[in-house]
Amino acid sequence: MDWAQLYAELTAQLQANVDLPFYQDFFVGFYRAFIDGARWKLYLSGVVTTLEVTILALLMGCILGVVVAIIRTAHDQQRPGRHNPVLEVLSAICKVYTTVIRGTPMIVQMLIMGTVIFASSRNFTVIGTIALGINSGAYVAEIIRGGLMSLDPGQAEAGRSLGLNYFQTMRFIVIPQAFKAILPALGNEFITLFKDTALITVIGGKELLYAAQAVGAKTYSVMFPYIGVAVIYLVLVVIFTWLQGKLERRLRQSDRR
Fold it and tell me: Would residue 130 be called left, alpha or beta, if left means φ above 0 and alpha means ψ between -120 and 50 degrees?
């Protein structure tokens, strides 16, 4: 059967005010939202952009998070009576950063970035990526800091006894061990960040939700585009969760060996 011809016939009946059965009305709405005019390409483009934004924002967040976590951990683990003034200042700045970012809504941060800090820029997707990365950095910092602080202090002392400095000890001994402990939380952060990419639409960023809104504006119906986007998000989150669980199981198996 020619689906395009069937769609044209059913659309003509709707325009003539003919009441269609539920399944035919459903077919028209689905076809109009995803097939007609190759609109599925808009959703595909939105998925690609969403994944790109998620990965870039997470990379930015991990870099910020590692730096902030190391500074705060180094400050908290200073020996009694020995306080580095530079470390005190850097730790205070990092603490303000995490407090402000974690204490304010993501959408407010996005609006400030898009309409105040980068008000003259029109590259809203990049602005949204930066905002997501900065937001993610605060949460990643606390995840990593918790993982570093949970390790036995004797691990760091063993590194020092081998002649390693603080950063070498963190790089070769502490962080590799902490990674396995923080992996589940980092996986959850990735999934949260993936869903939060929808927020860049509020400043004009073009991702998956933007595609649904564009289709809704053309078809004058948002039910199928929005439900379709929700299903796409759900399917991708289920896949990411499965991959995360598989990676965690593999790491546990390597520990037993």
Answer: alpha
Q: What is the pLDDT of residues 197-211, one digit of tens each?
A: 999 999 988 889 999
Whether the CA torsion 147, 153, 159, 164 is positive or negative: it is positive
Helix then strand count (H, E) for the chain reads 11, 0
Helix pair angle (223-256, 208-219), 10° resolution: 160
| d(C-alpha 134, C-alpha 19), whole Å | 52
CA separation for the pair 11, 86 (Å, rounded): 70
162-178 pLDDT tens trace: 777 767 777 777 777 77
Is residue 254 helix, strand or coil?
Answer: helix
Please enumerate in sequence order all residues whose Cβ is within 8 A of that of 98, keeping only pairs 6 or more positions apart, or say none. Answer: 68, 138, 141, 142
The tens digit of pLDDT for each residue in 239-249 reads: 999 998 888 78
Neighbours of 83 (CB within 10 A): 10
**The model's pTM:** 0.84
